[in-house]
Structures are given as structure tokens and as C-alpha cells.
Specification:
The structure is a single chain. The protein is an alpha+beta fold and 458 residues long. The protein is 65% helix and 8% strand. The protein contains 15 helices and 7 strands. A hairpin with a 2-residue loop joins strand 4 and strand 5. Helix 4 packs antiparallel against helix 10, helix 5 packs antiparallel against helix 6 and helix 6 runs antiparallel to helix 7. 35% of the residues are buried.
Length: 458
């Protein structure tokens, strides 16, 4: 029992064991009743009714133990479901059998009347628990669906028997067929559960289908409305209690819808926030928060499209920090990460709002200058941003950078993004080979460099 409480698989096995005992109790009751009938003695009530009622008690326990296969929404929504389904199934049971049995004047024994009422009342509890369980179960539905159909067939058989017995008109026939169908469905459900359990694995549990039959809780409501609107098969009149119950059902439906709409609204907001976060993570560097290579490439292609259409100038600046490996080796990678983040802040603050700066990886940055044919202005802003030493963890560190530039002027022939990036990258490596701390413009050739940008040492 302790294992069953802790482990869903153990609870499931316990539930099926209890359902098997329920069927055995009913079979024992039926065997005793058949022996009484064969001997010409078939009193009502009899010892056989203990087995029949034992089925209801054990089946209710089995459904209570059975774990739901995947949660069931918000707490208030589950509460509204429980009240709504209980009221609807109870109203159907009252209008079809329970009310007629309670009002019948052909049952003179109090014990017989109590027993006849106990059958449909127990069936109401079984149907309510079955619908609640199925509405909260997201996976392994086949076996439970068959159990639900079997419970409904059992409820129809028991309720019809109780009504016919109360009116002294029971003669077997279709009622007995309903019991056979009920146990046939339950037996098939057990076989399906056993087959499913033999081929399930932990991976199957994690990847279980979570689609939910959202209309299931409303089926008892539809049945209650039909009974009220069309009329009770037993001719039971609609009293004040039934009207109040119907009003309660409608109120629970509205409350459930309100809770569901609010939950859906929160879920939509959470999904939108998560989507925004994922989009930002996909196109931005996690360390510096700058655009990454993918976003830089997208904006570069857009700038090149404007150059081809309107003749707008485009400049790409590649920037690589000199001797950054020595910083990591001497101070550690955490220190290097702080330096990269501070460099990103300086560069972002020193550039125009329309410029795009991205971290391409490691200590390599790229800047896209749009509507600026004179790249000297942009590189000067980069130089000014890095001129002052960086104070990190008690250390003052001067940063030197090798910069490569490729300018696509208004009159220049179009280049692809790959060509522009490759030329800027080649110019940057030319600056690094020339000793670093300088700018190389691709248009001047890899061997000609403007005066180096030397940073003051601390």
C-alpha cells in the first residue's frame, strides 16, 4: 500500500487488482443468486446483494486509487468539474430511476427500498468518478475508456433493474444483456492495460500523448439537459430541487469557462514571453547581450539591399582584441569574460544608435556602419571607446585592438555579404600581422595601413 501511494505504476496495479476483486464479488453474488433461483427460492433482498453491492464499493475504491495520466488543470477548474459532473449525473439518475424508486408505493419493505436506491446511487458515484478520471487523463486512454463504457453499461443495467424491481416488472431480458456487455468491456479493458504495460518504457512515459478530451466533462451536462427538456423516461416530474440543480450546473459551466479562459490567457502570455526570450537568445550573444553572427548577417544583407536599391554606403569593421589570450592565461577566463562584457558596453555607448555591433565569437567583434561612406569617423569612435584603461577586479588594463575595414561606397559595384565580410576579416588579420593596435582599410591594400591607433598604457 505504501508503494502504491508513492508510485503511479504501483497505484495503477492496485487499481486494477481492486477492479478484479469487484468483478469477483459480483460473480460470487450472481452465483449465489443463480443457486437460489435454481432451487426455486429467489428472495429480494438476499445474500447475493452483498456481492452486487461489493462490486460498487470496490469499483469506487479502484477508481479513487487509479492515477490520472498527466495532471488536470487548475485546482478551481477541477473543483468546478467535480461539482458540475456530480450535479449533472445526479440529476439524470434522479429523473430516470432514483426519484421513481423513492416515490414508488409497490415497495413495502424499508430494506428493499434502501437496497433498490443504493444501486443507482452507487452507479451515479461510479459514473462521476469515471468521467472525472478520464477528463484528467492524458495518456493510456484505451483501457480507461473501455472501463468507462463498462461502468456506464453497468449503471444502465443496475438502474433499470432497480426501477423494474420497484415497479414489480423485472423479467430479465435486455437488462441481463447490459450486465454481460458491462463485464465484457471491463475484461477487454484489462487485456488492453496488460498489453500496454508490457510494451511501455520510461521513454514512453515521458513522451506520452498529452492531448486532452476537453468536451468530456460536458457530456453529463448534455445528458441532464436532454432529460430535463425531453422528459424523464420514468415520467418523473421536474421539481424545485431538479430546477435548482440545473441552475447549479449552469453556474458551474460558466465558472469553469471563466477559469479556463483566465488560464488560457496566462498561458498565452507566458508563451509570448518565452517566445520573445527564445528569439532574443537565438540572435544575441549570451555573455555580452550583443547581436550574434546570425543577426549581424541579417542586418548586413538588409543594408546591402539598400545599397543596391538606393546607393547607400555600407561599411563593415572587424575588431579583434590584441593579446587577449594572455589576459585569459594571466587572470583566468572569468576575468576575460568580464573584460569582453565591458568592451561591449564601451563600444555600444560609443557608436550611433543606427550602427550594429555584434560579437562574432571569442574576442572578435564586428560593426556595421550604414549611411556612412567615411569609415574613418566610425573607426575613430571605436578608438575613442577603447582609449581609457579598463578597471576590473582591482586591475587596470589597457586594451589594444586590430581593426579591419571594408567600405562599399555609393558608386561601388555590389558585393555579397560573404565578400564584404571576407574582405573586412582579411583587413583585420593584416592589421594583426603588422603588429596590431592599428587599422587596415581593404581599399588601401593589405600592406598599406593608416597610422596605428596606440592606446595609452596604465
Amino acid at each position: 500500500a505504501g508503494f502504491a501511494r508513492r508510485c503511479p505504476r504501483g497505484r495503477q496495479q492496485t487499481s486494477w487488482a481492486l477492479l478484479s476483486l469487484a468483478c469477483a464479488a459480483w460473480a460470487a453474488g450472481q452465483a449465489h443468486w443463480a443457486w437460489l433461483a435454481a432451487s426455486g427460492r429467489a428472495p429480494f433482498p438476499s445474500v447475493a446483494d452483498i456481492g452486487f453491492l461489493g462490486f460498487s464499493v470496490l469499483a469506487v475504491t479502484a477508481l479513487l486509487v487509479q492515477p490520472a495520466g498527466g495532471g488536470g488543470g487548475a485546482l478551481w477548474q477541477r473543483v468546478f468539474d467535480a461539482v458540475m459532473i456530480s450535479a449533472a449525473v445526479g440529476l439524470v439518475g434522479w429523473q430516470t430511476t432514483i426519484g421513481a424508486i423513492a416515490a414508488s408505493d409497490t415497495v413495502h419493505s424499508a430494506a428493499a427500498r434502501a437496497l433498490l436506491l443504493s444501486y443507482p446511487i452507487a452507479d451515479v458515484a461510479l459514473v462521476v468518478l469515471t468521467v472525472l478520471l478520464l477528463s484528467r487523463t492524458h495518456s493510456d486512454r484505451t483501457a480507461l475508456d473501455l472501463v468507462g463504457l463498462g461502468v456506464i453499461a453497468m449503471g444502465v443495467a443496475d438502474s433499470t433493474f432497480a426501477y423494474l424491481e420497484a415497479t414489480s416488472s423485472y423479467a430479465g431480458g435486455a437488462v441481463d444483456v447490459a450486465w454481460v456487455v458491462a463485464f465484457g468491456l471491463i475484461a477487454t479493458a484489462g487485456s488492453c492495460a496488460q498489453a500496454a504495460g508490457s510494451r511501455r518504457s520510461p521513454a514512453d512515459d515521458r513522451c506520452a500523448d498529452r492531448r486532452r478530451v476537453t468536451f468530456l466533462p460536458y457530456l453529463p451536462v448534455v445528458a441532464a439537459l436532454l432529460v430535463v427538456l425531453v422528459g424523464s423516461p420514468s415520467g418523473q416530474p421536474l421539481g424545485r430541487g431538479a430546477g435548482l440543480t440545473l441552475a447549479l450546473i449552469v453556474g458551474m459551466v460558466l465558472a469553469r469557462q471563466y477559469v479556463a479562459l483566465r488560464a488560457n490567457g496566462r498561458l498565452a502570455a507566458d508563451l509570448a514571453t518565452r517566445e520573445t526570450e527564445l528569439r532574443h537568445q537565438a540572435f544575441h550573444d549570451s555573455l555580452t547581450g550583443l547581436p550574434n553572427r546570425a543577426l549581424f548577417r541579417d542586418r548586413l544583407e538588409h543594408a546591402l539591399a539598400l545599397h543596391a536599391r538606393d546607393g547607400r554606403a555600407v561599411s563593415v569593421v572587424f575588431l579583434d582584441l590584441d593579446d587577449f589570450k594572455a589576459v585569459n592565461d594571466g587572470h583566468g577566463h572569468a576575468f576575460g569574460d568580464q573584460l569582453l562584457a565591458r568592451v561591449a558596453e564601451r563600444l555600444t555607448g560609443g557608436l550611433r544608435s543606427g550602427d550594429t555591433i555584434a560579437r562574432l565569437g571569442g574576442d572578435e567583434f564586428a560593426v556595421l556602419l550604414e549611411d556612412d561612406g567615411e569609415s574613418v569617423t566610425g573607426t575613430a569612435r571605436i578608438h575613442d571607446a577603447l582609449a581609457a584603461p579598463f578597471a576590473i577586479a582591482g586591475h587596470s588594463l589597457a586594451v589594444r585592438a586590430s581593426i579591419g575595414v571594408c567600405v562599399l561606397g555609393p558608386a561601388d559595384p555590389a558585393l555579397s555579404a560573404e565578400q564584404l565580410l571576407a574582405r573586412s576579416d582579411a583587413a583585420m588579420y593584416a592589421a594583426k600581422r603588422a603588429g596590431g593596435a592599428r587599422v587596415v582599410d581593404w581599399a588601401h591594400g593589405p600592406t598599406r595601413t593608416p597610422p596605428p591607433l596606440v592606446h595609452a598604457e596604465s
